[in-house]
Fold this sequence. Notes:
The chain is built from 8 helices and 7 strands; from the N terminus they run H-E-E-E-H-E-H-E-H-H-E-H-E-H-H. By secondary structure, the chain is an alpha/beta fold. The protein has a 5-stranded parallel β-sheet with strand order 3-4-5-6-7, with helices on one face. Helix 7 crosses helix 8. It is globular, with a radius of gyration of 18 Å.
Amino acid sequence: MQNSARRRCPSAKIAGMTIAAEPRVCIIGAGCSGFTMAKRLKDAGIRVSLFADCSPEAMSGFAATGADRVELYTEPYARAHGTEREDEVLASYAAAGARAVELGLGLNAGHDLNLHNLARFAAEVPGLQEVSIGHALIADALELGMDATVKAY
């Protein structure tokens, strides 16, 4: 059986490639080439989210692409959690979050966030809309059970 809705879906030409208009989120890296592709995708009407290291200074560049959201890579925070560096590292994420909000970017975060470090991160990073916790959630569910894990988060 053919999917008639898919056949009718409009497409866009970007950098010589035909891309279906169905994608709502694209995560892009690779420096200048990534920014260029993000701009082209946004210009084609595709929702764009950039996955990036934490850098308050970089938020202006992300906003200039027209990106809808930025997802901060949180492994450095997870590694610093519970150490003498935690406050300093978390302050940089808070500054990046504040700058993203100031520029109108949606803010997501992910990588190595879990039951132990998520609450403080979420409380101190302004504008946080979504976190990627799937890996940690499933790992905890294997140990605690799904119901208990969901309640704990």
